[in-house]
Write a structure and sequence with these properties.
Elements lengths: L7 E4 L3 H13 L5 E4 L22 H4 L4 H8 L2 E3 L4 E5 L4 E4 L2 E4 L2 E4 L3 E3 L12 E2 L4 H11 L5 E5 L3 H12 L3 E6 L11 H13 L3 E4 L3 E7 L2 E6 L4 E4 L1 E4 L3 E3 L2 H5 L8 E2 L11 E3 L4 E3 L2 E2 L3 H15 L13 E3 L6 E4 L7 E8 L2 E8 L4 E7 L6 H7 L6
Parallel strand pairs: 1-2, 1-7, 2-3, 7-19, 9-16, 10-11, 10-16, 11-12, 18-20
Antiparallel strand pairs: 4-5, 5-6, 8-17, 13-14, 14-15, 20-21, 22-23, 23-26, 24-25, 25-26
Helix pairs in contact: 1-8
Amino acid sequence: MTSSAGPIVVVGSGLGGYTLIRQLRQHDPARPVVLVTADGGEVYSKPLLSNALAKHQTPESMVQKSAEAKAAELDVRLINHCHVHAVDPDARCLDTSAGEIPYGDLVLATGARQRVIVPAEADARWIDSVNNLDDYRRWYAKLESGVSHVLLIGAGLIGCEFADDLMHRGLRVTLVDPADWPLARLLPAALGRTLASALADNGADVRTGRHVAQLVRHGRGFTATLDDGSRVHADLVLSAAGLVPETALARSAGLVVDQGVRVDHRLRTSDPHIHAIGDCAQTPAGVQPYILPLMAQARVLAQVLAGGDARLAMKAMPVVVKTTSLPLTVCPPAAGSAGRWEIDGHGRHLRAVFRGDDDAPLGFALAGDSTAERAELGRQLPPLLA
């Protein structure tokens, strides 16, 4: 039994959208499904965008399957290059550039966008970000035009991965972030500074504790003035300052939105016929912009849409950081957790465990050879969502 009459309409053809539809077909092979996407809908691995250069991936070689072939395989109606302007929950209808699209159940799989930092004097069009395959096509073309030095704003997970990847291509990278060490939200100081050292040893100019105060254009290049008065001359500027959940459609529908689109244990929003999944969704465990939580959400939502009574539960899910300069695996404690970091190891092979006030492990960060302990430590942590 399905949850309501009418087709399931999925907005977004990223990993969340396609994984959900694949899971749904295992439970309900017959219900009409419509996939609406603003881009071409090609199947590719978004997490590989930040290390594609090291793997010698062109934009074309990243495509695993055409949108048309995938739509036929999953028996869905594909509407690509289609922009959704608003959601009318009373009429259960989308207002789109392709006309009105009715739904029985709607799934928002709109993901998240890169937060782009625009310094004083700068034009936002000068600053690149890479968040999807179309972005990568533009970025790759620019890198092919004789670039030698990239200014990278943001030393979080994505920024560090891009810095590492650009150096694999032989480019000079200046990495700027106002935090005192890279991956400051995920790593304790000792591991963060070890990562900074490893990136620097591979050629990165790491400027932590700094921000870009001004950016001006000179011919084909740029000059950035940092808040300490120092200057950086670069051919391209890439912003990788974190992800912002895409919530505009949810807001247009009057849904409850906080950091992301609020959903319950069954991935239902405040409207029972609208669901959200992936980077745009704020589950009872918060926004989880990683692959393993997304897969868990897809399995549950597929059962719910097919009339089942599944509930989302997630064990601790370590994240592998794709920095070959220093292998890292992180599983941060829940936001606001009280406790302390305990760090041991030697050189760049460090092991950090975050322990609560009762001495129980609540999270960890592993560097170098210590990453081999991720499975064992992961089993000791409390579930992300019970």
